[in-house]
Known about the structure:
This protein has 196 residues and is of the alpha/beta class. Helix content is 31%, strand content 21%. It has a single domain, classed as Rossmann fold.
Amino acid sequence: xxxxxxxxxxxxxxxxxxxxxxxxxxxxxxxxxxxxxxxxxxxxxxxxxxxxxxxxxxxxxxxxxxxxxxxxxxxxxxxxxxxxxxxxxxxxxxxxxxxxxxxxxxxxxxxxxxxxxxxxxxxxxxxxxxxxxxxxxxxxxxxxxxxxxxxxxxxxxxxxxxxxxxxxxxxxxxxxxxxxxxxxxxxxxxxxxxxx
Length: 196
Ligand code: SAH
């Protein structure tokens, strides 16, 4: 098929946590992503003080960039280690508290208040917990979602969209029969049918 042999593959949460533990995080970009710089104007569209969502955020440095520009950033990530590394590497003091609506989840918030990172599965979130967003940075997120969960993931993203929101999505084109990842190949036709 056009997704090669990736269709039935699953990367479990435990496997992600393990990648973080052993430092197998080749996806992390120390210098941030050039495509966010390139398309920043499309994301912001002249607006200031936006709420911006980072699904499957890892320790993406772009969260710091956008917060420094005066936006308010919310991310979600299963690895607590990733979130602690994010605050540590940017010398940002933070607080940690439980999330009443989600058993076992934690919310890490910068003391300045403009970065809130949820440690839980993306599928535990809803707009009643995190609100809606004006902008989205989806890099290493849709392409990391297990193919069987894509529709659910995209429905959630649509549910989190404020009117007139902008969604920047980064995918990678390659021959899925020749390469194993980044984790999953998402053809453009599928993106169109998922997002409508
Ligand atoms: N967007 C980040 C990280 C990409 S890698 C970046 O650009 O660097 C994908 C990340 O998603 C990993 O850090 C992994 O731990 C996390 N993850 C995987 N499944 C998840 C889920 N169901 N909910 C939340 N985070 C998840």
